[in-house]
């Protein structure tokens, strides 16, 4: 049986996640941490798989987004500063270097305009196998990265 851990900085988001997990009878250990503070990483175990849909939308893109997204999604979960759109990916790559078990993989959703930059970021952090995937509209949308030890 798999052990599953989830984390978020927002207590409200964790409450929604707990309710959703309970509804689907999923056994998940939830942790409230600020992922951008590396000393919080000690609250998480070493793992085989890391999955993340971090904030990746530059604030400047807010003007072109659909109102239903802006009205129903917490801005904390969506936006990063314009000058550092890869902020969370750098932290995820660093976390993976210390917490990913041998042969483990990282799966992240990405901004459609930052596919190649995100691929390069993971390569720069020692991931030898980095695959960029497109969504159904052909836009860059996801990365799978595996550290080759």
What does this structure look like?
The chain is globular, with a radius of gyration of 16 Å. The longest helix is centred in the first third of the chain and has 13 residues. It has a four-stranded mixed beta sheet with strand order 3-6-8-7, with helices on one face. A two-stranded parallel ribbon has the order 1-2. Strands 4-5 form a two-stranded parallel sheet. The mean pLDDT is 93. The two termini are 26 Å apart. By secondary structure, it is α/β, with parallel strands linked by helices. The chain contains five helices and eight strands.
Give a summary of the structure in a few sentences.
31% of the residues lie in helices and 30% in strands. It has helices at 11-23, 67-72, 75-78, 87-99, 115-124, and strands at residues 5-8, 29-32, 47-52, 57-58, 79-80, 100-109, 127-134, 140-147.
């Amino acid at each position: 049986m798999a052990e599953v851990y989830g984390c978020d900085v927002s207590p409200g988001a964790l409450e929604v996640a707990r309710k959703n997990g309970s509804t689907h009878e999923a056994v998940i250990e939830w942790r409230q941490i600020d992922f951008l503070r590396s000393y919080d990483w000690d609250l998480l175990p070493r793992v085989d798989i890391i999955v993340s849909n971090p904030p990746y939308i530059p604030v400047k893109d807010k003007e072109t987004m659909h109102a239903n997204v802006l009205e129903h999604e917490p801005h904390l979960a969506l936006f990063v500063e314009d000058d550092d759109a890869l902020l969370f990916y750098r932290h995820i790559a660093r976390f993976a270097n210390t917490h990913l078990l041998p042969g483990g993989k990282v799966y992240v959703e990405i901004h459609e305009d930052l596919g190649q930059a995100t691929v390069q970021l993971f390569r720069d952090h020692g991931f030898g196998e980095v695959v960029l995937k497109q969504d159904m509209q052909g836009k860059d949308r996801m990365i799978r990265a595996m550290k080759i030890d």
